[in-house]
Each structure stands twice: as C-alpha cells, then as structure tokens.
Write a structure and sequence with these properties.
The complex is a heterotrimer. By secondary structure, chain A is mostly helical. Chain A has 2 domains: about 35 residues; about 250 residues, MetI-like fold (Orthogonal Bundle). Chain A is built from 11 helices and no strands. By secondary structure, chain B is mainly alpha-helical. Chain C is of the alpha/beta class. Chain C has one domain: P-loop containing nucleotide triphosphate hydrolases (Rossmann fold, 3-Layer(aba) Sandwich). Chain C contains 10 helices and 11 strands. In chain C, strands 1-11-10-4-9-8-7 form a 7-stranded mixed β-sheet, with helices on both faces. Chain C has a 4-stranded antiparallel β-sheet with strand order 3-2-5-6, covered by helices on one side. In chain C, a hairpin with a 2-residue loop joins strand 10 and strand 11. The chains are: A mainly alpha, B mainly alpha, C alpha/beta. Chains A and B meet through helix 1, helix 3, helix 4, helix 5 and helix 6 of A and helix 1, helix 3, helix 4, helix 5 and helix 6 of B.
C-alpha cells in the first residue's frame, strides 16, 4: 500500500463527502419547495388560519413577520451602527472595552430561547408590555445587536486608513470624518450585513414564542388606527409570526392539514430567506460597482 | 456607547435573575443536577431531578457533533483543497444559504422525513434521540463547514507549496500539514456548532419525543433542557417552584454558553500563538 | 554618535522648528532628541533608509501621530510662535495650516469638486462662487485644471494615479496652508507623473513651505534646498542640499549617498 494509493482513496472519500452533503442540501431544498409550493395559492397567502378545520391560510402571519422585522430593524440598526462606531473608532484598548467585547460575544452566542425567556421576564412581565410585537421586537434586537455591532465595526475597520488620515489631516473632526468619509465607504458591508441579520430575525421562532406570543387577534386590514386592538399596525398587540406558526401547528396538531400548511409556510419562509440572501449579494455587488467604477 | 450600557445591563439581569431563582427555589442543588426523577406536579412529594434533561441535552449535542464533524471538515477540505472551483462557486453559496434556514424549518423536515424514516427502519416511535441527533447534525453542518473552510483558506500558501515541493502527496499535505495548522480554528468551528446544537430549542423539541426520563437507547424518546423549557414555560405559573426550576434550567443553558465562549477564547489564543 | 547640524536660521525665516523632540512608539524610541529648523518658503528633504524615523518625524509636525494610541511625543514643536505639541492646542487649526500628502494617492470617494471643497465647507465656506474660485485656483496651481475642468463632478477615483496625486496636493493647498508635508509623494507613481509632481513642487515653493520625505536621492538633490539625513531615529546630518550631496561631513551620510547601505 503506497502513498499514492492512499492519496487516491482519500480523494475519493472527499468527493463522496462533498456529494453526500450536496445531496442532503438539495434534498432538503427540493423537499420543502416541491411539497410546499403545491399548497401555495393566493388564498393561502392572504387568508387567516383556521383553528380546527382544514383550509386555513397564513396571511396575518406573513404580515406579522414583516411588520415585526420592520420594528426590529428600527431598533437594531441605529443602536448597532452606534455601537460599531464606538468600538471601531472611539473605544480605547482598556478593560471596559475588553469587557464590552466579551459581553457582545457572549450575547451573540446565547441560545435564542434564553434570550426569549429573558424577554418574557423583563419586557412581558416586569415592564408589563404583555405578549406584543413590541416585546418581540425588543427581544429580536437583543438577539441581533451583537451581529449588527460586529458587522459595522468590521466594515469600518476595513476602510483604508489613508482615507481617514487624509480627512483628519485637513483638520476635520473625528465625527465628521466618520460620517462623511468612512461610513460611505463602509456602507456596502453594513448593508449586506443588515440584510443577513434581517434574514435571521425573520426566521426566528424560539425567542418569539414567549414574547410576541403564539396567536394573533383577528385583524381588520382596513383599520389603520395604531392603537386599535384589531389594527394590523398596532405594535402592542400579540402576534404570531410565520416561524412560530409553523412550530405551533406542528406541535398542537389540531388542524387536519397541519403537515401541508407547515410545508407551504416553510416554503414561504425559505423563499423569503433565499430572497434576503440574493438581495444582499446583489446590493453588495451593485454598491461595490458604483464605488469602484464611476 | 449607549448600546454597550444596554448590553451590560441585560447580561447583568439574565445572570442575577437566573441566580436568584436558583437560590430561592429551595431545592437542593445536587438533587436538581443529578436527580433522575422529574415529578414537579406530584401532590405530596414533588421531585425536581433535572438530570434526564441535562443528559438529553448533552447526549444529543455530542452525538450530533460526532456525526457532523467528519462530514463538515471533509466538505471544508474539499472546498479549500480538492476542488476550489466547485467549492467556491457552488458549495459555498449553498452552505451560506443553509446557515440562514430557520430552525423551525429544520424541525419540520425532521418531523416529516427523519422521524418516519427511523420509525420504518428501526421500529419504535421514531421520535427519538437518533432523530434529534440527525436534525442537529444537519443544522450545525454549515456552521462547522464554513468556519473550517475559512480556517483552511487563510493558511499561508507557502505552507502548502513547501509540502508539495518536498514531494508529499495531496493527502499527506492535508493530513500532516494543513489540518494540524488550522486545527485551533477548526475546533472553534466545532465548538460553535456545539453551542448552536446545545441551545437549539424548537427543531429538537419537534423530533425527540419529549419523554421526561432517561433513555436506554438512542431510539428512545428523550427531553432536553430546551425542549422542556419550550413546552412547560407557558404552562406554569410564575413564582411556583415548578416555574423556578425551569428558570434554573435556563440558567444552566446560559452558563453553558459562557463555557462555550471560554473554550472558543482559549482556542483563539492558541491559534495566535501558533502564528508566531 | 557623530552628527552635524549646520542649519541655524534667523527667526523670521523659520517656518517650523522642533526642540528636543522625542517620539516613542510603544517601547521603541523612534525619534531621539531631535532639534531642527525648517526654512520658510523653500523645500527641505528628509532622506534615510526605511525605518529611520523620517516619516514618523514628518507626521509629528501636524500631530498625525496622535492617531496611533501607543505613540508618545515629548519636546517642543514651535509653529507661529506657539508650541503645538501641547494638549490644549486646537488640532483643527494646526492641520488647516499644515497640510499633508501621502505616498499613495488617497482622494476621497467623491467627485473631484467635492474632494477640494469638503474641508472648506466644513470650515463654513458656503458661497458657491467662492468655492468655485478656490477649486479652479487650486487645480490650476497643480496643473490639473485643463485636464479635469469638464468632469469636475465625476468621481475622483476615475483619474490616473498621477492625476490623483496632483488632486491630493490641490486638496491640501485649498485650505491655504503655510506648510505642506509630503510623505514620499512620488514613490507610487511612474517616472513621467513623478516628473510633473517635481516641477509642480518647484512652483509651489513660492507660496508654501514644503517638507518632503523621499527614498529617491536624485529627487532630493533635484528639488530641495536643504536636506536632512536620518538614521535610526537620529538626525545625522542637516545642511544645504549641495553640501550634503557633494561634501558631507559625517561618514555615514557619505556611505548612504554613495549607496553603500539602505
């Protein structure tokens, strides 16, 4: 048995692994899309779910998912970019910064259910927000903030130091240099990262079960008063998102067509995530082109 | 600056709440950690032995990592060394996409493919430790693969060239030179995968059956810390011993993620030392 | 250590002066007790092998080393009669009066026009007419006006390397500084572009004090009136350029000029 034969065998094994993984991955995608797409119709996408009978839709859940995402990003983006700027530009290499970094790292690896339970404790119970979109958005913010901060920091650090020096050397303040010179250059990275963060928030379920709640009140899509309990844009109403809904119908098993609805809802979820992925790549490329060509 | 403060406050709150429930609930720490009987609603002598859940969490995590690691590292090596063209163009985007697939979708797939498969092949219910292991292994596969891939790709190319120049075959180069050098970072990927598996709630809960006792084989149903939390947190009343016991389990999850972070930090230091 | 500093100027001829300047870069003593005077409205060149401290010293003159947290600068930097190496001075004012150009052209990711007016707007100049005038004037001074006057609002990054570097000089002089610090401004450019920049510097010395760090000894010989030779953080020899290049006092200077090291 010489080294060349072993090398050949190893190569074959690696090819096999690659093929197995590709098959698994494609099997999954195909399974969801094939099984799910057949159940997707205009009715399914717009109708409210049924509690006991077959034939329900996921309209409110889709709306909730996007609305919650919007609320979450409203909190996450300013805080995340602020934190990233602080860490990249203002923090001094001392114990506080070290501690802050450690805390961010810990926070980013917390299981989402733990974050969800924390939200239950603080936002839902202690601060009395109840099961609401608002509580859910705050929890998702905690969940996504570390990622957002890290993305901003990395993008800012990737800005060529010459650009920063050129601005500072003309006597321009640090803050103005950051906002006018560095942020525009860091923007593609920040946007790409933000979209990926959004995808993560979109599919999250465990953190939302105990904060945004597992059910939606009947919604009246003609009522745009944000304080009315049946208004879709009221941020203080409970709301189940698409991901939570999938979990709920599977574990409760009360509706006869749970499997089909779960498959279709999963397909919708996967297509959205796919869309976020493609969007982030596309925007990244577009901005990159705009800045380098000209 | 504001966000730093917020984060610090939050961490403080999680820790203090977790600890206070642990001291307030009045049950023996040892009984909680190692007791095998979980009968929280027994009228006269409720028992809070969380060991079956702790065992469930650890066993399903370790099994998933054991199953996933060879495949993931193999895939990373394939992408980085054997066929970079296919790797970069094809496998990498697919793996990035798979990181983004929500965990409920994995759970649903497990429920509709893996559980019936186990039931039909090995008998039993199908809802089992084995199903949980497979679902988690697939879930963490992209995590481990992408970290290992980055680790292998960031190795200086001189290293590889030097090995080939000495007449080593590709396998010898991978096995003797590349893997040992990238090992700290590959291990980091494995620990990240482990952390994800340990903290995953819904996907696991959907396929493992949620029977609240110790399993006797991997085809038995089990519960994990996350699955019991998912199911029972909304069924218990705040302030009861039962509810507090659940919070203590959340604290275990929190502490475990600290442990994972510590391991990752230590590995990170190790890899920096190697660079010198 | 044998050193020789033959330049001692009248107070009115001094653009900037350092006294016992020390710069520490972490534990490294990068500049050692450096005292020198720079002549007004003339070109002074700093030469020396890599790592000799010439760039570090140049960056100290408009406090750019402040950006690197581990550096510490002691001693005096006298400019317009005040010590600018002092915590209380306003960095914006100093940097407005002491401009800088780098080795690698680094125009902002903005239009040609915006590159020049960015700092002016920041200083509060808003009238379009004045801004337009300054843009034209600065670009004419760097002989770039005719090449770019039709595309002032196109991205500066579309310019060639040499044009970009001239734009950077135009950007630096737009704020009407007294001193221009140039850190190897031609080493990233082709010979033709370098030649243009050299001619330009010759023109500019009528209005600005120019200090140039260069690796290229011929360049130092061609354009500067004074030359300082640095080695390992020490100012080895400082004299009129023709003396340094024809009749240096210190052996090490001679070795370097003759190409025996570095």
């Amino acid at each position: 048995m010489n080294v060349k034969v072993i090398d050949k065998i190893a190569t074959v094994i690696f090819y096999t692994i690659a093929i197995i993984i590709t098959l698994i991955l494609f099997g999954l995608l195909c399974f969801i899309l094939v099984k799910g797409l057949s159940g997707i119709s205009w009715d399914f996408l717009t109708k409210p779910p049924e509690n006991l009978r077959a034939g329900g839709g996921v309209g409110p859940q889709i709306f909730n998912s996007f609305f919650l995402l919007l609320l979450t990003m409203l909190f996450t983006i300013p805080l995340g970019i602020g934190g990233g700027i602080y860490l990249a530009e203002y923090s001094k290499p001392n114990t506080i910064t070290y501690a802050a970094r450690l805390v961010i790292e810990v926070l980013s690896s917390l299981p989402s259910i733990v974050v969800g339970l924390f939200g239950l404790l603080i936002f839902v119970q202690k601060l009395g927000m109840g099961f609401s979109l608002f509580s859910g958005a705050l929890v998702l913010m905690i969940f996504n903030l570390p990622l957002m901060i890290r993305i901003t920091e990395q993008s800012l650090r990737a800005v060529p130091v010459e650009q920063k020096e050129a601005s500072l050397a003309m006597g321009i303040s640090h803050w103005k240099t950051i906002t006018s010179i560095m942020l525009p250059i860091a923007l593609p990275g920040i946007i790409t990262g933000t979209i990926l963060t959004a995808g993560r928030a979109f599919g999250e379920a465990a953190a939302l079960m105990f904060t945004a709640g597992m059910s939606s009140p009947p919604l009246d899509f003609t009522n745009w008063n944000p304080l009315a309990p049946n208004s879709p844009i009221n941020p203080f109403r409970p709301a189940s998102t698409l991901a939570v809904h999938i979990w709920k119908i599977n574990s409760e098993g009360l509706i006869p067509d749970a499997a089909q609805i779960a498959a279709s809802a999963s397909a919708v979820l996967v297509i959205c995530v796919l869309f976020f992925n493609i969007l982030s790549r596309w925007i990244g490329k577009l901005i990159y082109k705009k800045f380098t060509a000209a | 600056m504001l966000s730093i403060i917020i984060i610090t406050v939050i961490t403080y709150f999680i820790a203090s709440k977790g600890l206070s429930t642990f001291f307030k609930n009045g049950i023996n720490l040892f009984d909680f950690l190692f007791g095998t009987q979980w009968k929280p609603e027994h009228d006269t002598t409720p028992l809070f032995g969380a060991f079956p859940f702790i065992f469930g969490s650890f066993s399903v995590t370790i099994l998933a990592v054991l199953l996933s690691t060879p495949l993931s590292v193999g895939a990373a090596i394939f992408m980085a060394e054997i066929s970079p063209k296919w790797g970069a163009k094809f496998l990498q985007p697919v793996i990035e996409l798979l990181i983004g697939i929500p965990s409920v979708v994995y759970g649903f797939i497990g429920l509709s493919i893996i559980v019936p498969f186990i039931r039909n092949t090995f008998g039993g219910m199908g809802f089992s430790l084995a199903s949980g292991m497979i679902v988690l292994a697939i879930m963490i596969l992209p995590t481990i693969t992408s970290v290992s891939y980055d680790a292998l790709k960031s190795l200086p190319s001189g290293l590889k060239d030097a090995s080939y120049a000495l007449g080593a075959t590709r396998w010898q180069t991978i096995y003797r030179v590349l893997i040992p050098t990238a090992l700290p970072n590959i291990l980091t990927g494995i620990v990240l995968g482990m952390a994800r598996a340990f903290g995953e709630a819904l996907a696991v809960q959907m396929v493992i059956g949620n029977v609240q006792r110790l399993p006797s084989s991997i085809l038995d149903s089990v519960s994990t810390l996350t699955s019991i939390l998912t199911l029972e947190m909304s069924n218990t009343i705040a302030g009861t011993t039962y509810n507090n016991a659940l919070w203590s389990m959340a604290l275990i999850l929190l502490l475990m993620s600290f442990v994972f972070i510590m391991i990752i930090r230590i590995l990170g230091k190790g890899s920096k030392l190697n660079e010198r | 250590m044998v050193t020789c500093n033959n330049i001692s100027l009248d107070q009115k001829d001094i653009a900037i002066e350092t006294r016992d300047l020390n710069i520490y870069y972490g534990s490294k003593h990068a500049i050692k007790n450096l005292s020198m005077q720079i002549k007004k409205l003339d070109i002074t060149a700093f030469i020396g092998p890599s790592g000799c401290g010439k760039s570090t010293y140049l960056r100290a003159l408009n406090r750019m080393n402040d950006l690197i947290p581990i550096t510490k600068t002691t001693g005096k930097i006298l400019f317009d009669g005040i010590n600018i190496n002092d915590k209380n001075v306003d960095l914006a004012t100093i940097r407005q009066k002491i401009g800088m150009v780098w080795q690698k052209p680094n125009p902002f990711n903005k239009s040609i026009y915006e590159n020049i007016v960015f700092a002016l707007k920041y200083y509060g100049i808003r009238q379009k007419q004045i801004l337009d005038e300054i843009v034209e004037d600065s670009l004419r001074k760097v002989a770039l006006w005719d090449e770019v006057k039709d595309r002032l609002h196109k991205s500066a990054l579309a310019l060639s390397g040499g044009q970009q570097q001239r734009l950077c000089i135009a950007r630096a002089i737009a704020t009407k500084p007294e001193i221009l610090l140039l850190d190897e401004p031609t080493s990233a450019l082709d010979p033709i572009s370098s030649g243009k920049i050299e001619e330009l510097l010759f023109e500019l010395k009528q209005d600005y004090t120019i200090i140039i760090v260069t690796h290229n000894m011929q360049q130092a010989g061609r354009i500067s009136s004074y030359t300082a030779f640095f080695l390992l953080g020490d100012l080895i020899e400082y004299d009129e350029t023709n003396v340094i290049f024809t009749n240096p006092v210190v052996d090490k200077t001679n070795d370097y000029i003759m190409g025996r090291f570095g």
